[in-house]
Amino acid sequence: MINNEIIIEAKRLVERIKLKYPDFVSKTASERELAKLERELKIKLPEWYIELFTTVPLIDAELGIQEDEPDEDYDGISYIIWGGVDDIIDESNKYEPGISVLKDGYVFLASCSHGSGDPIYIKLSSMQPSVFRIYHDDFSKNQLADDLTSLFKNAII
């Protein structure tokens, strides 16, 4: 099943992170926290999303994405920090672009660890959601990964 791919690759990613950074500690979300997330955002979370957040310790993990073509001054890699339930609620209810894009089905996933203020989102309506950076100044989107599975598979540690 497609959704199992997401979970399998997410677990592989966490294993890769722990190999490189043995002291790495991240966390999962509880079902109670995810129920709060559904209430606060007034959405129904898909089963795969609940399984991902409750079984794979991704919260607070930092990973790299090859966002741009490298040049002599810049490797083109952007680093993101996977958000927790409170981050998702805050980004969706208190800040732009989260407030506006939630109406279109986009849910906050991660923040930019470089401090750009341009967060990372997925569209929950898809079984294999694409991953986007949505810019806070004009809400334009830059697709970072075709789907979560490839994000996890290709993440740079």
Automatic annotation (TrEMBL):
The protein's name is Knr4/Smi1-like domain-containing protein
Q: Which InterPro entries match?
A: Knr4/Smi1-like_dom, Knr4/Smi1-like_sf
- Which residues belong to any copy of the Knr4/Smi1-like domain? 29-152
Top-level taxon of the source organism: Bacteria
Q: Gene3D superfamilies in the record, alphabetically?
A: SMI1/KNR4-like
Q: Which Pfam families match?
A: SMI1_KNR4
What organism is the protein native to? Neobacillus ginsengisoli
